[in-house]
Amino acid sequence: MPLPYPDPRVALATLHGKADALAPALASLGLQVETVAIDTDALGTFAGDIERPGTPNEVVIEKARRGMAVSGLKLGIATEGSFGPDPLLGFLPLHMELLAFVDDEHGQTIVVEHAGHDTNWVSKAVRPGDDLQPLLASIGLPTHAALVKPNRWTTRLDEPLPVAKGLIDPAAVTEATERMAARSEDGLARIEADMRAHRNPTRLAAIGRLGHQLAQRLATPCPCCGAPGFGRVDARLGLPCELCGEATDLVRAEIHGCGVCGHREDRPRADGLSAADAGHCPECNP
Ligand SMILES: [Zn+2]
Ligand SMILES: [Zn+2]
Fold it and tell me: Among all ligands shown, which has an atom nearest to the Cα of 221?
């Protein structure tokens, strides 16, 4: 069912070929993704050569707005990924991805998010001459790429952090390791998975799933004003303990809301869980 937009074009600000992953889901709603080639690297890079100028939420909305400004369109989308060790389960890598939809037609911003351990992200210091094969296998060369940079580097105004990106040939990684180690203050190089979407089919697949999540959200009209995009905006904590009924830190209810008229409703958890395992209870398991 087409959405109530007079102009169905949506600006996608990217240099990194995400349109193929996002277009099908939005096309099911009659929306057309138009890539706007702006250099979003100015808003930060994974390699760390350019810092991100705000929270991921702020940056993803700013990216979408830049694409809208350049194209003159009233709708814009952008994604923002972040990667690192899971703060709770330190040994597992965590991929967080945000997808923003900025809608100046109705005056609302929708951000949907993905969090998962299904990622090839890894970051490791190596010495020239080390056996790189296991590390490169875990990154997934040649369908996925690696990047190499000095392990320790003090950024100077006249000399930004050198990074060799998009490497899919092990010989090129070995060569870059020697070159970057020689420039590093500690003689080591740092090898990471290249997380840019066009070099990372695993991340691209997650972005595709986020596109479907956004489409589902946009296909849900607000029960109050009828604007598209009604869905989860917040959560209420305090799921009761299964044994004593005490409130835990787990989500008790989802709060669904409309970004246009501000209407909000409590909804049960999507997974149907109505009581918390006693392991989460401050009384039963302090
Ligand atoms: Zn509404
Ligand atoms: Zn309890």
Answer: 1
Ligand 1 mean position, distance from CA 89 (Å): 38
pLDDT digits (tens, 9 = 90+) for 26-67: 999 999 999 998 877 777 777 777 777 788 999 999 999 999
Give, in words, the CATH class of 9-119+198-219: alpha beta
- Give whole-number Cα distances, 14 to 55, 57, 258, in Å: 18, 16, 27
Ligand nearest to C-alpha 260: 1
Query: What residues have their beta carbon closer than 5 A to ion ligand 1?
Result: 222, 224-225, 227, 258, 260-261, 263
Interval between CA 236 and ligand 1 midpoint (Å): 20
Q: Give the start-to-end residue ranges of the domains of the chain.
A: 9-119+198-219, 123-194, 222-286
* Cα distances (angstroms) measured from residue 162 to each of 127, 146, 177, 197: 17, 14, 12, 21
